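Q: Two folds, back to back.
A: First:
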Amino acid sequence: MQKVTLNNGVEMPILGYGVYQIDPKECERCVLDAISVGYRHIDTAQSYHNEEAVGNAIEKSGIPRSELFITTKIWISNAGYEKAKASIFESLKKLKTDYIDLLLIHQPFNDYYGAYRAMTEAYKDGKVRAIGVSNFYPDRLIDLCHFQEVTPAVNQIETHPFHQQKLAQEIMKKYGVQHESWAPFAEGRKGIFTNSILKSIGEKYGKSIAQVILRFLIQNDVVVIPKTTHKERMIENFNVFDFVLSDEDMNAITALDEGKSLFFSHYDPQAVEYLISLAKQK
């Protein structure tokens, strides 16, 4: 498995398995399937309500903990030093592990500075191997990088062929932050799985559109965590290291970038109010 080296020297698999919106009742089976396929990087979050299922799968997999890379995220409602600190211990308990490989702030709302202090403390105590953020736009990422003792190792943001986050990636590279994608398939929006350009490129290599997308992101040094509940899709998504897209094909996919989100914008007051309302419900 190809890996990236984070700014603190920790190695992270460039391809992982995400469990967003997977029902806790089904999640354990899915993670066990993913591990059996060969995935060693599993991405969950407090707000997904399936950390326990991930923990059960880790325990039952028979794979040494040292061979796995586990990510979770602190939700908005757990922001602030004290709440974040308590939530970290709760996540460790649910995941049935002595340490978390990567811990992220899920959204840049509420007292995320306090949460980051708790994360930094857990990092120094060896409870977390790397800390970072998710959904931080360049302005907030720059602010955090300048005023925290530990520079975020990762920023996980919406990234797919229609929203490639070129400016955000430039900023991340400048500050030594690893770019990670959520929704690499845009959750199927804008007909991504029938796109004629992606389809024709896939036909050249005998690969699916999904494999072309993952390969494109990987060649752009972006960590990807595709989600599926079907083992055959897990296998398909995993088999993306036996071909390389040409410069011509990379350029063709680059041209698909529309430069805007297909989901939400933190610069949209209504979107922010909606996200915060979700946090207050939990």
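A: Second:
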Amino acid sequence: MPPAERPTPSLTARQRELLDTWLPGYAVVADHTWGLDDRTVLEIVHARGRFIVKAGGEAEKHIAREIHAHREWVPVWAVTGHAPKLVHADAAAKLLVTAHLPGRLVLGSPAQDDPECYRQAGRLLADFHAQHQGVDDDYLAQAHDRIVRWLASDHRIAPDTVGRLRDAIRDWPAEPVAVVPTHGDWQPRNWLIDGDDVRIIDFGRAEMRPAATDFARLARQDFERSPLLEPAFFDGYGRDPREPASWRRMLLHEAVGSAVWAYQVGDEDFEAQGHRMIGQALDMAG
């Protein structure tokens, strides 16, 4: 996209108005829109520097959560250059502007198989989790209800597997659990590598949850690919807080949500991964 071109088709009139007010004369240099959700992601330049713009459409549900994360939790990383700094935000308009963060995605790079990358990611995540701790009386009950709703929605999970899943969650507990700020999608596609430094992006799923929920995607992707990565990650994190029963529940929740969501947005590769995760979680649950 030429630098002079403006992103008029993908932004609402209110979003364009705000961007023109915040960064008059900006130019779009790249469109990083994923295409699987109702969100536009643009890289722009302005006299003040380079920025990332995230703009939600009518059906978008994560911008407000991302803005909250940038205001409350991301500064622990942003102040050291390990996450982008918030520049402008308007939750009502579903518009967020952050400073551009240098680096390339760890996903698909040599760093994806480098234990030092995972050691750094563990250390960064420990700092993020340590900012605050609370207790959520309803987390487990709500997680159970989400699985029930997912299984009742459109998906391609086999009927006999649905039956096994319903059996596995029948005695799901409902006691209070400790929760911390979590990223919500902690994996190499949301890490950047710049020289030797790991940096973090994309906070649209950030929320107060049990700490171990941030380990689930790594456990079913990268940790299985190499025996060196999991110990490096927990060496950086400082400890392994996973307890077997709660860990199995988290993996079930993550697996079902992945398979259902991916089917509904048409991401067949991620859907297949979700089905593999379901099988693995059910085997763990016996």
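Q: And?
A: Residues 244-265 form the longest helix (22 residues).
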